[in-house]
Amino acid sequence: MVFSARLLRIAVTPRDQLDFRSVRVLDGAMATELERRGCDISGPLWSAHVLDTSPQVIAALHLDYLRAGADCISTAGYQVSALGYAELSRPAADTVHALRESVRIAEQARAEYAREDPRRIRIAASLGPYGAALHNGAEYHGRYSIGFDDLVAFHAERLAMLTETNADLLALETIPSFDEARALLRALEQFPTLTAWISFTCRDAERVAHGEPLRECAASLSESTQVVAIGINCTPPRYIEALIDEALRGCGDRKPVIVYPNSGETWEPSTRTWRGSSDTREYGLLARAWYAAGAHAVGGCCRTRPAHIRAVAQAAREAVPAARP
Asked: Which class does domain 19-318 fall in?
């Protein structure tokens, strides 16, 4: 009986608590960089369309980020959901295949890179918020017409699809509200072996997109053994240093804080174009400031490229090593 109980404890322990200390550099954008490389992401599944049409381009992008210095690559699964595939009259089985294929492609890139450099690389299975499945911009305000239990079910359905993959963790990203973060925690509890980072998109230097203080969100997430880091992504770089402070004030030394903001360019919905510019050298200088402010890991979101991550990797080499995992 003692032996059986020990086995049970092992079975429900999050994957080795995911030693996050070696993860200092995250990768950059997926969808906008695939678009730069000639892929059509105009449909409701965004970058997930490329899983069907050009998986080799995704693999090549993963490899470019690894060569730029990323310690962790995120999959192309952000937009994948049964809700989105049903809109295209595709069966639920296609959703399962797409999510698992996104991990397989990342594994392929990691294996190829290992022939060049044996350093340890993590794979984060990317999942976007419920609003991303609506493809109407709702992930940037979080005002959904869905009940809490249904929101939990939406996320749990996708988590179940990833339990049999070799992803090291989940990247639950661009989360606009505390309610959706709570739904994610409830969904994660159904799969005790899974670990994840939860990353918020923020509207200013203090609050997540829906309006809740980031400090309070971070404090609430910091007690979960399945959450390995608290993040800020898809947010203008000018807010990041202050947001790092807010997140750290909320979680204290209980969780590392990671950041991967946009390039600094701004999306113009009326023309469906990006305006402004991004300088990779300046991004690297900002990354130095973010590490100095207490960020454990830095990467990039929309419109960042391998060159941005190369600048971040240089900043990480020059930064004082993180004091805690």
From this structure: alpha beta
